[in-house]
Amino acid sequence: MTNDLYAVVGNPISHSKSPRIHSLFAQQTGEAVEYTAIQAPLEDFAGTVHHFFDHGGKGLNITVPFKEQAWTLAEHRTHRAELAGAANTLYLDQEDQLVADNTDGVGIVRDLRDNHGVPLKGARVLVLGAGGAVRGVLGPLLDEQPASVVVANRTVARAEALARLFGREHSGIELSACGFEQVEGPFDLVINGTSASLKGDLPAITADVIGADTVVYDMMYSLQTTTFNQWALDHGAVRVFDGLGMLVEQAAEAFFVWRGVRPETSAVIEELRTD
Ligand code: ATR
């Protein structure tokens, strides 16, 4: 039996952990899956996608910088992809039409709620950042019915736009937007969705967002403690998590979308931690 072919597309792509994650899922589930990494030229993402599916490929994950293009390219979008404004998962439907999905939001919810046992229902949540990464996760987070969500961003207008967009669908939840200076803590959960740490920077919030029981979650991950989580630990946070679990959970959801089989994630997260 030949394996069904899947891949992750990005630029650059050599650092991607997705081939490793999906090969662990394939081993674990016995699914006949082969998963590779493809670097698409910046000027021809669409050509790369069409070539892959024209040659029998079954599904793609999409990463930086192509998630918005993947969303635009698709002929159909799932509801969660529609709201996210970006796609990390592509496949063909029964009419061979390209479908865009987004599993990032489910990924962070499963990691927080199921892997770390963080209660989301009724929680007071602070989300830092208002770019594509935050838009991708807000819908599934709000679906968990937190009491309130404050979206704080350096550029306030972007946070306000997200609050307007998601406020329409989640009218029962107190959803607000502000700049970093206006944030008043503490919160039950603080999620860093900015890319500040890529430049070794921190969002300019004060440490009073962190109380004795605050959970801090950085959507970034790295071998060492992330810049943001280190800042949180230095200011008294006791429970800090990085985004490795989210990465594995979004992959597991994509695997489920494609194969109808849900991999067990905890062993895979452990394995990646020690790679
Ligand atoms: P991504 O897909 O990672 O979300 P993005 O759409 O470019 O990328 O968004 C990056 C996010 O990180 C934005 O919220 C950005 O703030 P602005 O909207 O004000 O640009 C935030 N960000 C990036 N660098 C930052 C820094 N040094 N301090 C604070 N926020 C930063």
From TrEMBL:
E.C. number: 1.1.1.25
Record InterPro entries: Aminoacid_DH-like_N_sf (IPR046346), NAD(P)-bd_dom_sf (IPR036291), SDH_C (IPR041121), Shikimate_DH (IPR011342), Shikimate_DH-bd_N (IPR013708), Shikimate_DH_fam (IPR022893), Shikm_DH/Glu-tRNA_Rdtase (IPR006151)
Molecular function via GO: NADP binding; shikimate 3-dehydrogenase (NADP+) activity
Assembly with partners or alone: Homodimer.
CDD domains assigned: NAD_bind_Shikimate_DH (cd01065)
Protein family membership: Belongs to the shikimate dehydrogenase family.
Catalytic activity: shikimate + NADP(+) = 3-dehydroshikimate + NADPH + H(+)
Catalytic-site annotation from UniProt: K67 (proton acceptor)
Span of domain Shikimate dehydrogenase substrate binding N-terminal: 8-90
Chain sites annotated for binding NADP(+): G129, A130, G131, G132, A133, N153, R154, T155, V156, A157, R158, M219, G243
Domain (Quinate/shikimate 5-dehydrogenase/glutamyl-tRNA reductase): residue spans on this chain: 119-196
Broad class of enzyme this protein falls into: oxidoreductase
Pathway(s) the chain acts in: Metabolic intermediate biosynthesis; chorismate biosynthesis; chorismate from D-erythrose 4-phosphate and phosphoenolpyruvate: step 4/7
Residues binding shikimate: S16, K17, S18, T63, N88, D104, Y221, Q250
Descriptive protein name: Shikimate dehydrogenase (NADP(+))
GO cellular component annotations of the record: cytosol
Known function: Involved in the biosynthesis of the chorismate, which leads to the biosynthesis of aromatic amino acids. Catalyzes the reversible NADPH linked reduction of 3-dehydroshikimate (DHSA) to yield shikimate (SA).
Biological processes annotated in GO: amino acid biosynthetic process; aromatic amino acid family biosynthetic process; chorismate biosynthetic process; shikimate metabolic process
Organism: Marinobacter nauticus (Marinobacter hydrocarbonoclasticus)
Domain named SDH C-terminal: residues: 243-273
One Pfam family it belongs to: Shikimate_DH
Keywords, alphabetical: Amino-acid biosynthesis, Aromatic amino acid biosynthesis, NADP, Oxidoreductase
